[in-house]
Amino acid sequence: MSAVIEIEGLRKTFNSVRHGRQVAVDGFDLTVGPGEVHGFLGPNGSGKTTTLRALLGLVRADGGRMSVLGAPSPTRLAQVAGRVGAIVESPQFFGNFTGYRTLRLLALAGGVPVSRVDEALEQVGLHDRGDERVKGYSLGMKQRLAVASALLKNPELLILDEPANGLDPAGIREMRDLTRSLADAGVTVLISSHILAEIQLICDHVTIISRGRRVASGRVDEVLAGFDRHEFLVRVAEPERAAELLRAGGLPVDVYSDHLVVGQVDDPTRISRLLGEQGLWVRELTSLRPDLESVFLELTGDGAHPEVPRQVDGSGPHHRVMEMDAGVGEVRGDNA
């Protein structure tokens, strides 16, 4: 089956009196396959929200090609709009309307059966609060209502921009479970979030954008594997002596106040064997595998040259790590 979302070479610039011409998205590519829960990550000002707005026809792109559910966007977006649910940025609601009335009006306006209102409220955990006025809702409850509005159409594609904003830990877990249940039912989900640990738990694929360009894309496990230095944390009674023995065994070692970090270790038993043969017994041996947060920080500035972000393609068995062209303009086109 063809991709649910395809973006190729997307460009968008903004003009402002203060800053002049600003590049928000600079040749960005994104592919989301059917049934994926796809994380879309980037620092503030990286071009995430601009990309989503361009994809949904809310702003006009300056260049590139986009399609949603096989329909070119924005020219034929209306043909598939009934199969797409989306929240971008923070939706605004009438405070004096109840949650139920808000969704009912949206359902009537969109030609959706009113019976879907109760179902959508149930899905996001607001069924018992649907008769309360929206102005009394907490930020997290308003966010749930926004997600419910995106679910009204029983969409094939769900686009969520910061759906966990304002949610407490229990709410975040419920949103995670909802996202996974939708994916299990065949819904494709594109989700943008700053909660990287949650993205790592929810998503099977990820795309990272920095300064308007894609710097990583692929399965989450493959992207993380591309940054695995095969390092282990070691705690032992005589760290200085242990470091000498491990270096003599051909392993790079960094010594810290209460532990060692040993690199290039394919088999951790090599560490325990090298030390055990000399009467040093390991108290702790822990794999230091990269997580999505550390990879994100390296790709978007912390650990990478700020003007030349690395691009990681995790789409195949061998990860291509390339230096991108220098001179990428600073992005200030949007706040996400």
TrEMBL record:
GO terms for molecular function: ATP binding; ATP hydrolysis activity. InterPro entries: AAA+_ATPase (IPR003593), ABC_transporter-like_ATP-bd (IPR003439), ABC_transporter-like_CS (IPR017871), P-loop_NTPase (IPR027417). Coiled coil: none annotated. It comes from the Bacteria. Keywords: ATP-binding, Nucleotide-binding, Transport. Gene3D superfamilies: P-loop containing nucleotide triphosphate hydrolases. The keyword ATP-binding applies. Residues 5-236 form the ABC transporter domain. The keyword 4Fe-4S does not apply. Belongs to the ABC transporter superfamily. This is ABC-2 type transport system ATP-binding protein. It comes from Micromonospora avicenniae. The lineage of its organism: Bacteria, Bacillati, Actinomycetota, Actinomycetes, Micromonosporales.
